[in-house]
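Subject: Interface between my chains keeps coming out wrong

I've been trying for a while to get a sensible model of this assembly. When I model each chain on its own everything looks fine, but I need the whole thing in one frame so I can look at the contacts. Pasting all components below, labels as-is. Any help appreciated, I'm running out of ideas.
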Amino acid sequence: MSDAAAAAYAMAPRERSRARSLVGDGGAAWLLTLPAIIAYLLMILLPLAGVLALAFTDYEFGGTSFRWIGSENFADMLKDRTFMASIRNTVIYCFFVVPLSIGIALLLAILIEAGARGRAFFRAVFFLPVVSLTVAMATAWQYLLHPSIGPVNAVLRGLGLGTPNWLGSSDWVLMSLGMIGVWENVGFNLVLFLAGLTAIPRELYGAAEVDGAKSAWSRFALVTWPLLGPTLLFVIIITMTRSIRVFDSVQTLTQGGPNNASEVLLRTIYQEGFHYFKFGYSAAITLVFLAIVLAVMLVQTRLIDRRIHYG
Amino acid sequence: MRSDSPSLVKDLPRLAVLCIAAFIVLVPYVWMLAVSVKPQDEVFRASLTLLPERWALIENYGKVLRTIPVLTFVINGLIVCFGILFFQLLFAIPAAYALAKLNFRGREILFGFVMLGLLIPYQTTALPLYMGFHQAGLLNSYTALIAPFTCSVFAIFLFRQFFKALPDDLIAAARIDGMGEFSIVWRVILPNAWPAATAFAIFSVVAHWNDLFWPLIVIQKGSLYTPAMGILAFRSVESGDDYGALMAAATLVAAPLVIAFLFAQRRFIEGVTMTGLKG
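Reply #2:
Try treating it as a single job with all components included. I did that and got this:
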């Protein structure tokens, strides 16, 4: 028996068994993943390709033919006042809801974390809007904000202040929807912040105090704020993507009105697609929506990467 | 957690701020319940008293139940949510196990597709899916409500992370006992995956119970309305003027999930924010 053959023989059982396990694993693995792969293809990948293709056509649902029109849909958007209003409103809504819901959530999370009393109670109360049916709660807000019979204006009237038509005037409607959005999002962000806060080692606060950080504020600036950084960044992105997708409250309360003053991206997609059946145009707006969501996430990963490098 | 709990007096400012905030959060719920038992003339008096002079509980809730089949909507909501959850778990758990514990060619590519899927909001695919369901004659069906969500890449991602942490010995031992990969998934892996499975279940049910966008697109038939669509339907029938009945309708459809939440707060909070914590 040659050495080489001996070596091969010695290796063979292991090799063979590894080979078999790879093949065996392979067969079983593909069988195990097959249902998910089929569902993924049918429900995500093919429709995604479909949207990409539709966006460059003038296809109208129910029509028998369509033309490839290149980037015409995108050029049309720039001239479409509803779409431009929709983009502007979505951006304003985001810049209203994101900072407010995050700032309030952070403040409340720090207050909850600062003591033992009522912790579970407050956490549950603030979280309640997250699990409540948005359409139902929007209806409750509609009553609260009703210009003549609503309690909010009744209070304002009692105080001798002006009584805006919260959801009916184009000056106020976006802010009213924004306030409802803040109310909805605070609890979600709060719970994320609480998780971030509990992860900060207690000793650091003691150490900061020894180092001369006597006031609560300086301890916050020295310890809480820097260590909460990653959580904060993540909460910003989550709230951002949630706000970009605002639809339920707008559809329930204002349907984009008055006069497009509360038209938002998802509603424009819905309206152009399923009301006017302009599928090509709606698909093009969908791509803009997708591009914005992806851009936000890309910024997130970039920032997180940078943080890891110096962190 | 803290041992140095301050005295109640020193704690008061903190509690006061929290109570004011809690009060603001609860205002819509309180008024929703209050108005749902008020007769119409008292609603229109626009007073700030919460309790009605004359209780209109039966009047308002009775009107809702006569006008729209609330129970049907709630049952539809349950069928859709649990149908989605069933398929999500059925498809995601075996796939996640394969991605976490098996060596096979193409695994990295498959995982790449999972990561790609995580970036795509489901609203993106609505138009082609609608065309597909129309072509298949499946608009206005439970299938149309359930099928688009059967492949949850988030579930695959989550379970994969969870399964990776399970010891390999567990699986090796099961193989020695002569178990095939399928029985390993359902009899060894799943019993060890309950924390992840419950958290995901709550996340999924909350998301789909509250969804309005997709049901609004594929359902026109009243008998298939989901709870969220039910209120919209009631509003359009009612022209939105009878606030007592409208609030009663809102209360009825919001109640199931809110009550479930009050019974299992910790699990709910874990489940819903899991997306966040895993990031």
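Reply #3:
Confirming on my end. DSSP finds twelve helices and no strands in chain A.
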